[in-house]
Design goal:
The structure is a single chain. The protein is an alpha+beta fold. Among the domains are: 73 residues, no CATH class; 47 residues, Membrane-bound Lytic Murein Transglycosylase D, Chain A (Roll); 76 residues, L,D-transpeptidase catalytic domain-like (Beta Barrel). It has nine helices and nine strands. The longest helix is centred in the first third of the chain and has 32 residues. The radius of gyration is 38 Å and the shape is extended.
Length: 283
């Protein structure tokens, strides 16, 4: 309603309400246009970034030998296999197996090794049926800890002084030349020069226990299990007794009837110094 002067004085006249819908429509159109412009700008910016990014670089290919060695050292114990036999394990065994699986999954070599040692040392042997698999996996882990990581439990660092030779350093630490070269990735003893820092086995007490009937041998280091080796074939093994490793390890093994495969023999020649005890058991 509005007041206007009319013919008969001030009169009231009704005015139709103004239609504002056209203004609202304009606002909506503007908002949609701005959203479209913003979306187009974002896509354009992403396209420019993708075009400017460098092409992906392929990972370098490892040498077959190195790749095989890494696969062997990283090969998991597959702790889940230990459940296949359907055994109902005591809680302590189950917890240790779960811990082993987690250590293998995360690549924690030290935790995996100590967990296997704990499993094998359980009183009453509740995991006796797993012992052989556990022992063989522990041997792989121990070899990796020794030669790949130079574990301080077994290895010392020495300074090479004038007149020192690789043979003399190895002998003075009760070790072998082959182990010193392998620990330091050296091809020959001539590569050792004064002023170098070398890793050497720190007076290791290696011994070998041969099980005649079971046809395997356990290598022990400082009184603890280190690694297990099979004795293939059905040849006669020498009588029960205690022997001392000779200077020529290969001939010494042959004299005892120990026909190790090539890899096992090479490892034992590397680790066992002359005079190391070898116990032959009838078990």
């Amino acid at each position: 309603m509005s007041l206007e002067r009319g013919k008969f004085g001030v009169e009231y006249f009704s005015r139709p309400r103004r239609n504002d819908s056209s203004g609202i429509g304009i606002v909506v159109v503007c908002v949609l246009a701005l959203a479209a412009i913003s979306l187009a700008a974002t896509k354009f910016r992403d396209m420019r970034r993708a075009a400017a990014a460098p092409p992906p670089v392929a990972a370098p290919r490892e040498a077959p030998a190195r790749r095989a060695a890494a696969a062997a050292s990283a090969k998991p114990a597959a702790a889940e296999m230990f459940w296949e036999d359907g055994h109902v394990r005591p809680p302590r065994v189950r917890n240790l197996l779960l811990r082993l699986a987690e250590a293998e999954k995360t690549g924690n070599v030290d935790m995996a090794a100590t967990t296997i040692e704990s499993l094998r040392d359980l009183p009453g042997e509740p995991a006796a049926d797993l012992d052989d698999r556990l022992a063989r996996r522990l041997g792989e882990l121990n070899l990796h800890r020794l030669f790949v990581r130079g574990h301080r439990q077994w290895v010392a660092e020495v300074d090479v002084r004038p007149r020192d030779t690789a043979q003399r350093l190895a002998a003075s630490h009760g070790s072998t030349l082959a182990s010193l070269l392998r620990l330091n990735n050296l091809k020959s003893a001539d590569a050792v020069k004064p002023g170098m820092k070398l890793l050497v086995l720190n007076h290791p007490r290696f011994s070998l226990t041969v099980h005649r009937k079971a046809r395997y041998a356990d290598l022990n280091l400082n009184g603890k299990f280190f690694r297990r080796y099979d004795i293939p074939g059905d040849g006669e093994i020498c009588a029960q007794g205690i022997y001392k490793t000779g200077e020529k390890t290969r001939e010494f093994f042959a004299s005892l009837g120990l026909a190790f495969n090539l890899r096992a023999r090479a490892e034992l020649e590397t680790l066992l110094p002359a005079g190391a005890p070898v116990l032959v058991s009838d078990l």
